[in-house]
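Memo to structure team: turn this sequence into structure tokens by end of day. - J.P.
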Amino acid sequence: MEDETMFDFEDGNGPVPAHRHRNGGGWVADSATVAPTVSVEEGALVYGGATVCDTVRLGPGTRVYGRALLEGSLILYRGAVIDRTPIIVTNLFEWSVVLIKSPERMVAIGCEVYMPEHWRKHAPEIARRNSATPGSVPKLMTLLDLVYGKPRKPRAKKKS
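Reply from structure team:
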């Protein structure tokens, strides 16, 4: 069993000084800053130079590290991995939108977290399920295009 003052975040640095967050029991490296009002649930990890403030809620499997700064009333689940400060959009939709430009490229809208490709394909269905306004889907597509680029269209094969 690991010492309660050391934890290996499996980031190549080996065990580092860390503690369990008093609000949720997830692991927080002593090098990270997490407010007592934040919920770091069991299975969530915060390490490196990350800072998490306000009433952010990190669910199981969430990793926040590096230069990430999370603030406000975000809720992140389903293994979101954040290594830098995400783009947070408010007052454009009924919910806050969190766009994560890490290798995982996750997009969180309300409590739904998916990759941009999934949003592009299923946004109308997700919007209906969550009682979103009809105009929110085109706005979301524009936002995804601005942040992640427009999806590439497959090239037509040349005829021989």
